[in-house]
Amino acid sequence: MLGLSSKTLKETLPLYLLGITVFSLIPLFASEYIIHVMIITFIYMILASSLDILVGYTGALNLGHAAFFAIGAYTSTLLSMRVGVSPWLGLIIGGFLSMIFGIIIGVPCLRLRGPYLAISTLGFGVIIYVLLINLEWLTRGPLGIPGIPPLPGFGSLNFTNRITYYYFAMLMSLTSILILKLLTISRFGKILIAIREDEEAAKAIGVNIAFYRLAAFMISSFFAGLAGGIYAHYVRYINPDLSALGESISVLTKTLLGGFGTIIGPSIGALVLTFLEELLRPLLEYRFLIYSLIIILIVRFLPGGLYSILARYLSTQHSILAYFKWWSYGRDLKSK
């Protein structure tokens, strides 16, 4: 049982409906380019939030998260193009295959701690990257796979239409964030927080540390794979760079920028950094320098991330937006 109270559900719905309302209005006045960037943003919201449930709630640093994103993208693509599986089913299978890889890598790696865990996940990401390049008979190597079929439509819904895909990506993003948030405020999430804050104390009261850390890794991997499939059938071209270290660092930066341990914070980070990357596209070759500067500045001056600023401000407002404060459950933002 998740152990969710009726009060929790009542607090969840207003914020969820607020997000749907705000994002639903954007296509009414935005250009095609802004809609495209927003679709990519929604996908990265899922990816960043899925990383947060592992890094933010268990303290396990994953430097290979993009590998699960790539696994989901390639799985859904290959199943639809070579086996004839419906892309809708491919999205789910891609998520579950990413979760299986999460179990395979999680069982040995989660026994490690600190930098050793980070290095092991980094190694996993490199392995996936090298495999995608060298298995040319399957992945076409560094050339990537073009011509990926779009998601099949339903009736008048056509997913080659950008606005239709916008609303699909929006609903998938907000639903994924909602599910992850409900998990983190349940008994499961409280146990993850206990493990993060004091692993030895959690073990002393009978918490199965290995089980809960692995469960968090599995959930994180599943949603990363799901995001990969959504990306593949939108962009309709993928290559091994999806699993590169730079992609993992980008996702980690988005998560840190928004605020660890909040779920909604990484979504804010994804929104801000995705648009910032578009503005700084002429300086793309300096992106690692930019990521490094952002990480240093956030850690030094704003360890709670952008969400901490938003939560402090909105908590003083007498409106429905004050519900944002609830999303910081388990985090003492005032001390940051």
Which features characterize this protein?
70% helix, mainly alpha, 336 residues
Describe this protein's structure:
- This protein is mainly α and 336 residues long.
- The chain has 14 helices and 2 strands, in the order ααααααβααααβαααα.
- It has helices at 6-25, 32-58, 65-83, 87-109, 114-134, 136-139, 162-184, 187-197, 199-204, 209-235, 245-258, 264-279, 287-301, 305-314, and strands spanning 145-146, 237-238.
- It has a two-stranded antiparallel sheet with strand order 1-2.
- Helix 1 (6-25) packs antiparallel against helix 7, helix 3 runs antiparallel to helix 4 and helix 11 (245-258) crosses helix 12 (264-279).
- The radius of gyration is 19 Å and the shape is globular.
- The relative contact order is 0.17.
- Residues 318-322 and 332-336 have low confidence and may be disordered.
Reported for the largest beta sheet, the result is:
2 strands, antiparallel
In terms of per-residue confidence, which ranges show pLDDT below 50 for 5 or more consecutive residues? Answer: 318-322, 332-336
What's the helix-strand series?
HHHHHHEHHHHEHHHH
Helix content: over 70%
Q: Quick recap of the structure?
A:
By secondary structure, the protein is an all-alpha fold.
How is the secondary structure organized here?
Elements: H1 6-25, H2 32-58, H3 65-83, H4 87-109, H5 114-134, H6 136-139, E1 145-146, H7 162-184, H8 187-197, H9 199-204, H10 209-235, E2 237-238, H11 245-258, H12 264-279, H13 287-301, H14 305-314
Antiparallel strand pairs: 1-2
Helix pairs in contact: 1-7, 2-7, 2-10, 2-11, 2-12, 3-4, 3-5, 3-10, 4-10, 8-10, 11-12, 11-13, 12-14
